[in-house]
Every structure is written in structure tokens, then in C-alpha cells.
Amino acid sequence: MKGRIIFATGNENKLREIREILGDLSRDIISMKEAGFEDDIIEDGNSFEENALIKVRTIGEAFPDDIIIADDSGLCIDAWNGEPGIYSARYLGEDTPYTEKNNTILSKMKDVPEKERGAQFVCAAAAHLPDGSDFTVRGVIEGRIGYEIAGEGGFGYDPIFYVEKYKCTTAEMSPEQKNEISHRGKAMRLMREELVKRLGDV
After folding, report:
1. What CA–CA distances, in Å, run from 107 to 86, 96, 158?
2. Which helix (H) or strand (E) holds 98?
3. CA-based Rg of the chain, rounded to a whole angstrom?
4. What pTM was estimated for this model as a whole?
5. pLDDT, tens digit, 9 for 90 and up, residues 83-139
6. Most buried of 127, 161, 171, 181 (most Cβ within 10 A)?
7. Domains contained in the chain, CATH given
8. CB of 107 within 8 A of CB of 67?
């Protein structure tokens, strides 16, 4: 009997995106909470990759027969030397609403000229396999910080992340369009390719 894919998140929006992107795999995709894992994981790595590996290795100890996948992602603003980066979820406090986080960034960036408003969404995804091995992949989308909150879709920093090619923020895209170009979409497609390469029938 095949094991499951346990995705290390409690974020329902993120889990929905993962299920949409990896939906053609034959294993059930469940959250760590659905698997019964509710311990706090201390993400004290110095990079997106290190934090993602900490998560999958920790959960993998509890569920050795399953594939564990985690991602660590964030917004990297060029004018801020890549910040908030790995601290994106904790920027202004983990419990601070993203409307407040986004408005604070827009306020601090209000005098920054357009050519210096470049930003990236970065997603590092890690997998821990039943044989004890693990690996990481990375997806990046280039954009810039917009001038106002725009769009009702997506979550997190999507309403201020403007993609020039599409003339809109990632919060203004359909879920299908966003998954096609997003940092998480790119990372998860690379993840899928690597899982199939290593395991064959997933």
C-alpha cells in the first residue's frame, strides 16, 4: 500500500494550491494537521531551503512511511536587500493581518521610484522520502511592489506584487493563471518531476 503525501502546512490556502498543482499524483495529499502532527516546529534556518528541510525532516521522523513535503517562501524586495525574505510570515508579527503588512510596505515604499521597486516571490520546497533521503527545489517569480492593494484573490502579499507581463497583481489573477506562473507553482512542478524521477509511480 502506498503511503501518503503529507504537506507541512496549516494554511488552507496554501494546501488548496498544492492539491491543485499536484492533483494528478496518485497518493492522497493531506496536511500535517490532518495526519495528526501538531507539534511546533522551530524554523531557525538561514535560508528558505534550510527551513523547508527542517520541517520535512521533523515530520518525517513521525511518519517514516510517507512522503513529506514542505515549502518555505517569502517576498524579497530589492530596495530592502532581499527583506523581509525568510521572515516574511513573521514581518510585523505572525498574527498581524496581511492587510496591515501590505499597507505598511506600501507606505514605506511610497517614495521609491518604479525602477527600484523590483521584488521576487521565492519558494523553496523540500521533500523527505521513506528511504530517508531528501532534496530541495526552488521556484522564483519576478515582479515589483505595486502602488496600492489590488485584487481579491490569492493571499499574503499577493495584492501588492505586480507582474509587468500581465499588468496586474498576483491577487488579480485566476487561480489557474497564478499557479502557472507563481513561485510555488514552479517549485511544485519541479518537485513533481523530481519525485517521479526518483520514485517512478508516485
Report:
1. 21, 16, 16
2. helix 98-108
3. 17
4. 0.90
5. 999 999 999 998 999 999 999 999 999 999 999 999 999 999 999 999 999 999 999
6. 161
7. 5-199 (3.90.950.10)
8. no
